[in-house]
Amino acid sequence: MWSYADIADVLAGGLESALRELDAEHAVYGLDAREELELHPVLADILRRAGYGVHREQRYPAKRKKRRNSEGERCDLVLTHDGRPLRQPDQAATLFDAPDAVDLDDAFWLEVKTVAQHTVEGPNRQYSSQLLSTVGQDVSKLCKDPGILHAGLLIMLFVHNELVADHDLRIWQDRCLERGLPIAAPCLRFVPIKDRMGNALCVVALYPVRHL
After folding, report:
1. Of 75, 146, 193, 208, which has the fewest CB atoms closer than 10 Å, so is most exposed?
2. Residue among 90, 114, 126 nearest 42 (CA)
3. How far apart are CA 20 and CA 103, in angstroms?
4. What is residue 98's predicted lDDT score, i.e. its pLDDT?
5. How far apart are CA 197 and CA 170, in angstroms?
6. 93: exposed, middle or buried (C-beta count within 10 Å: 0-12, 13-18, 19+)?
7. Contact 152, 207 (CB under 8 A)
8. pLDDT band at 69 (very low <50, low <70, confident <90, very high)
9. Cross-strand bridge partners of residue 79
10. Which pTM does this prediction carry?
11. Tens digit of pLDDT for each residue in 82-115?
C-alpha cells in the first residue's frame, strides 16, 4: 500500500529543486543551516506537491485517549494518498466530515530527524549524540503504538561526503538492532549540495519501522 522508495524519491527530487532555487538566489546559507522544525514545512510542501495528503503534528493513536487535544505526543508528518483528509476518531462526527477520510491505521506515520555534521558555528560537536538520540525516541514511539501499521523514520544527514554518511548510519543501525528495534533496510538517496560551511551532501535515509 505504501512505497518507501516512492516517498524517498519524491523527497530527494523536491530537495534538489529547493536547493537549486537557493543557489539561483545566491543564498548565503543553504538548507543545512536551518533548524529541524524549519525543515518540516519544506518537506511537507514537497510531499503535498507530489499529491500526498500531508497532516502535520498529529497525535499518536494511543495518545488520543487523553481528553484534551493538546495532550499527548505528536508525529511530525502523517501522509494519506491522493491528498485525502485524515479521519479524527477522537473528535465528534459532523455533517461536514469528508466521506473519503483515511483511517489512522491506513495512513503513513513519518517522524523526521535532521542532523548536520557542520553548522554555521563550525563542526557540530553534538552531531553523534543528536543522531543516536533517535534510537530511543522516534523509533520506539512508532513501533510500539498499536494503532500504527505503516511508519517510517526519515533521517536527513547533512555531511561532508558519502563515506561519512555510510559510516555513521551503520553505527545508528547497529544501535537499533542491539536494542531489538524493528527497522528495515533504508531507502537511501544522495543529494549533492553547495558546500557553504562544510556539508557537501544531503542524505535522505528513509527507514521502514515495523510494529512490535
Report:
1. 146
2. 114
3. 37
4. 77
5. 24
6. exposed
7. yes
8. low
9. 54, 108
10. 0.92
11. 999 999 876 666 556 678 899 999 999 999 999 9
